[in-house]
Every structure is written in C-alpha cells, then in structure tokens.
C-alpha cells in the first residue's frame, strides 16, 4: 500500500489517467447492465428464435447478406436504417428482435433506433456474424 501511495505521489499524471480509465470502465459496465438492449450469444439467439419466435435482422450490406446469413433473417438496408424506415418489421413489433452486423460493432446504433421506434424487445448478437460462423452454426446462402 505504501508503494502505491509513493507511486501516485511520484507520478500524478499516470495515476490520474489510471483512475479515469477505471471510472470509465466501471461506468461502461453499469451502463451495459442497465441498458434495455442486451448483447446475446449465438446460443441465446437460437433460443430466442426457437422458443420466443424471435426475428433476426441482418444490417450488413446486401452483397454480404447474399453470401451468407442466418436462416430466415431479414436484411435491412443502410438506406432504410438511415431513414428510420422499419415498416418491413412492423408485424414483428412485439417479438424479440435480434440485430446482427458483421462483427457486433455497428448493431448497437440500429438496436437503439429500433427501441426508439417502439420495438419492445431488442437485442444484438455479440460478435456479429463472425461469432455465429465461429460457433459453427448454419448459414443460408443466396436469397
């Protein structure tokens, strides 16, 4: 403990940066836990689709979607997302909606837009299609 205090006294900038990083990490963790949008695993996605009639919304470009996608998923174009045009999903408003992107990085923004548009059960696939393929789960081609 004495060494920690001595380090903090000798290196105030490093100590401040470390403290800020810890606070940001804790804040991000709390925000994720309290968020209505949950990041789910490929196995949880399968359970939601099979048990709760969940709908998979793939937001990748159409070319990538045609190459491979999760069975029965719906491709939502970037243009529709930009215009908040979720008419094609209206009939699924009360079902679980799982947003899938390539690596799980861009799905959060679209999931927030869906939540604001009135979709009550929105989640996203942690790791995106990379996680789905990495788990060896089936994909459809074409469409």
What would you note in describing this structure?
By secondary structure, the chain is of the alpha/beta class. Helices cover 50% and strands 12% of the residues. It contains seven helices and five strands; from the N terminus they run ααβαβαβαβαβα. It has helices at residues 2-10, 12-34, 42-52, 62-67, 78-82, 107-116, 128-134, and strands at 38-40, 55-58, 74-75, 97-100, 122-125. The protein has a five-stranded parallel beta sheet with strand order 1-5-4-2-3. Strand 2, helix 4 (62-67) and strand 3 (74-75) form a beta-alpha-beta unit. The radius of gyration is 20 Å and the shape is elongated. The model has no long low-confidence stretch (mean pLDDT 89).
Radius of gyration: 20 Å
What value does the average pLDDT take?
A: 89
Report the principal-axis shape.
Answer: elongated
Query: Could you tell me how far the N terminus lies from the C terminus, measured between alpha carbons in angstroms?
Result: 62 Å
Kindly estimate the percentage of residues that lie in beta strands according to DSSP: 5-15%
Q: How is the largest sheet built, in terms of strand order?
A: 1-5-4-2-3
N-to-C order of helices and strands:
HHEHEHEHEHEH
Number of H/I helices:
7
Largest sheet: 5 strands, parallel
The tally of strands reads 5
Helix content: 40-55%
Oligomer: single chain
């Amino acid at each position: 403990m004495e060494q920690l205090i001595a380090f903090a006294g000798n290196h105030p900038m490093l100590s401040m940066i470390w403290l800020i990083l810890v606070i940001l990490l804790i804040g991000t963790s709390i925000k994720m836990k309290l968020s209505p949008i949950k990041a789910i695993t490929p196995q949880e996605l399968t359970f939601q689709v099979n048990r709760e009639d969940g709908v998979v919304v793939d937001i990748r470009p159409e070319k990538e979607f045609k190459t491979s996608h999760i069975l029965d998923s719906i491709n939502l174009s970037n243009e529709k997302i930009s215009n908040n045009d979720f008419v094609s999903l209206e009939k699924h408003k009360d079902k679980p909606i799982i947003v899938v992107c390539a690596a799980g990085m861009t799905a959060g923004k679209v999931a927030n837009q869906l939540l604001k548009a009135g979709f009550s059960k929105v989640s996203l696939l942690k790791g995106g299609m990379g996680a789905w393929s990495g788990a060896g789960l089936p994909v459809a081609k074409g469409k």
